[in-house]
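[job 4471] stage=fold_predict status=RUNNING
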Amino acid sequence: MPSFDTIVIGAGPNGLAAAHRLASKGATVLVLEAAAEPGGGAGLAHLSYNLDPRVDKAMNLAGHGLQWLEPNLATTALSPDGKHLRLEGPVVAKLTGDISAEDRAAWDTLRARLLRFAAVLSPLSHMTPPRIAKGVGNPMLKLAMIGLKARMMGARDFRELGRILLTNVHDLLNDELTNPLLKGALAFDATLGGWLGPRSPNSVLPWLVRLSGQTAGVQGALGLPKGGMEALGAAMGRAVQAQGVTLRCAARVERIIVEGERVVGMMLMGGEELRAARVVSAIAPKTTLLTLIGPRHLDAGLTTRARHQKSRGGAAKLHLTLRGLPEFMGANPKDRLIIAGSELDVERAFNPVKYGRVPERPAMEIIIPTAREPGADGLHALSAIAQFAPHAPADRDAARAQMLAACLAQLETHAPGIGALVDKAELLMPYDIEDRYGLPGGQWHAGELSVEQMLFLRPLPGIAQYKGPIPGLWLASAGCHPGGGVSGSAGWNAALAMEAAP
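[job 4471] inference complete, writing structure tokens
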């Protein structure tokens, strides 16, 4: 076995981004992935909205096979009467459908304001969070610079940013808009992948973080990769191997080895030991600390904080194999399709989930990739994210069956006859996602992306700068700052922090 100075656990986007950066600076890197292929949780998503441009450029992902079928995907907000609303361009630059001139003008104004605010906040994603402690110099300097940039927007915008950061998405939308389909689609986007509804406090900040992302250089655009999101993970895998990284799949880590109060390597399932001076964990921080390290190597306070880290998943993933292309009452099947009749419908879908129950009418995001890339077998694939789904119901099998029935009923309402086309159906509830991808609670972001778990509080106070609580251990998953999405940002930032470490 070759000798490595760095071993990365997890070949998701963050693990691969960290490995590539470290190898480009001369490190000898081994990446271990439990699954048969690289990509990690990227396969859960079906669209890209925040691929880090630093990662994209440095890894030359286009040169390793990443192509965009559509780098700026349009969205159609579906109506059961066929009077859909089509949202074109990055963060809906153009609206087509039955909508008033007043709402068009109001959305143009609100859209420009939200993108402006998101752009001001976007540098946060490319920095190591400041450490709030004595004797660390001036940890707030970078934040102060971002604050100055926000202040330079002008007094009116600065006040408005402060106001909306303390409100919720429901109130923000209702202050400006009246069209229910538009508000429903926007409320769905704002809460996608989170454990919060439109009325939840502090639900605007995670939305601004989402809006700060980009695809192919366009802020707020949604990208559909050729071959699906799995193709993005595959391109990143080829990129790290071209950089000299050793990528080993079907290699599950059982535990991280600690000797003399220092991390020295890990043991794989089956008993094989691998040694390295640095271990980078690109899997969920809660799993890393409580399972791979174990409480006996951590102080009691950190163990308690790790156990209490909020990691509730609220999204289910539906895959359908269809014997024909479904008809959504005139909607373009190549669009991203949203079932969210209003912001209140999104809230109603969240309410029962808080109590472990399945919503009667979940909100849904639908992609039909075979509408653009037909399969050789003549079948069609439908991929959907259903919001919301309980992560800890009393009866898992019953909840899964109820959720599948609710999703199929929603689809039938908006695409009559689709049920007769279903050849195969698979629904992953949050607990299935946890079992398959190792994400605690089935939380897509490896820890909830909420205000109290962001920036220098992510993943936990005291270990928010990517350096683990034990020498030799580094943390680099989506559970670290800036979190969320298939971006690679946390892994890239972690590698930069490792380079700067003494």
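[job 4471] summary: The longest helix spans residues 101-121.
[job 4471] exit 0
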